[in-house]
């Protein structure tokens, strides 16, 4: 797969009943332009967890994030969208819902760098499991 090598900075804040978490990740990634979409791929490494392969598909007004390790999730974000997405776990299929409250996608004119900010709630089988604030920058 060709494309441009980029540096990725990813910050995530998760607010859940069981306690809050935050992650700051820096990684090398690859940026590919295909049609009207930009694809950013990188490996996310968090201590004591399997490496997660991440693919972010960015289009005008819409972002899809696919994360693959032991399980695979694909979450879609659009301003005001409440999206149902299947999630396969060892215990069986679950339905995940994202409720996107904040969506900011700012790409440079040359599409070689950009920033994505998301604020959303995540529900599993109809119950909110957490509030998420995500910031992703690449250049």
Task: Explain this structure.
0% of the residues lie in helices and 73% in strands. The relative contact order is 0.20. A 10-stranded antiparallel beta sheet has the order 6-5-4-3-2-1-10-9-8-7, with no helix packed on it. The protein has a single domain (4-138), classed as Calycin beta-barrel core domain (Lipocalin), CATH 2.40.128. It is mainly beta and 139 residues long. It comes from Fructobacillus broussonetiae.
Record the SSE blueprint.
Blueprint (H helix, E strand, L loop, with lengths): L3 E12 L5 E14 L2 E8 L7 E8 L2 E7 L3 E6 L4 E8 L2 E16 L6 E11 L2 E12 L1
Antiparallel strand pairs: 1-2, 1-10, 2-3, 3-4, 4-5, 5-6, 7-8, 8-9, 9-10
- Global Rg: 15 Å
Q: Which parts are unreliable, with pLDDT below 50 for 5 consecutive residues or more?
A: none
The total strand number stands at 10
Based on the structure given, which CATH architecture is correct? Answer: Beta Barrel
Query: In percent, how helical is the residue content?
Result: under 10%
Number of domains: 1
End-to-end Cα distance = 18 Å
Instruction: Could you tell me the CATH topology label.
Output: Lipocalin
Enumerate the strands of the largest sheet in spatial order, edge to edge or round the barrel.
Answer: 6-5-4-3-2-1-10-9-8-7
- List the quaternary state of the chains: single chain
CATH superfamily: Calycin beta-barrel core domain
Look at the structure and give the mean pLDDT. 89
Largest sheet: 10 strands, antiparallel
InterPro entries: Calycin, DUF1934
Organism: Fructobacillus broussonetiae
Pfam family, one: DUF1934
Protein name: DUF1934 domain-containing protein
């Amino acid at each position: 797969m060709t494309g441009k090598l980029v540096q990725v900075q990813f910050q995530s804040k998760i607010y859940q009943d069981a306690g809050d978490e935050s992650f700051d990740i820096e990684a090398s990634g690859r940026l590919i332009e295909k049609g009207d979409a930009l694809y950013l791929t990188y490996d996310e490494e968090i201590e004591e967890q399997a490496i997660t392969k991440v693919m972010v598909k960015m289009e005008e007004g819409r972002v899809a994030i696919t994360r693959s390790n032991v399980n695979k999730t694909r979450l879609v974000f659009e301003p005001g969208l409440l999206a149902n997405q299947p999630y396969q776990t060892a215990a069986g299929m679950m339905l995940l819902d994202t409720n996107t409250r904040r969506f900011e996608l700012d790409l440079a004119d040359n599409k070689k760098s950009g920033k994505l900010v998301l604020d959303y709630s995540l529900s599993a089988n109809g119950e909110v499991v957490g509030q998420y604030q995500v910031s992703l920058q690449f250049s």
